[in-house]
Specification:
- The longest helix has 6 residues.
- By secondary structure, this protein is mainly beta.
- The chain has one domain.
Length: 65
């Protein structure tokens, strides 16, 4: 399963609602996956590749190699 190595963000499940004439008539299941990037990270002097979500990259929670 897709998972961020920093914040553990995973796939979320919910309902996609069809609104017709101000009534919710149909519900379809829907999945929302995190925006993951495979980046090189330096941990304890070694370089390895991990999957990190775009929000963690943007917030600077990762030291890229």
């Amino acid at each position: 399963m897709a998972r961020c190595a920093i914040c553990d963000k995973t796939t979320q499940y919910g309902n996609q609602l069809s609104i017709t004439r101000s009534h919710i008539s149909k519900r379809n299941s829907r999945t929302v996956k995190p925006n993951l990037r495979r980046v090189k990270v330096e941990e304890n002097g070694t370089v390895k590749r991990i999957y990190v979500c775009a929000k963690c990259l943007r917030d600077g929670k990762v030291n890229r190699a």
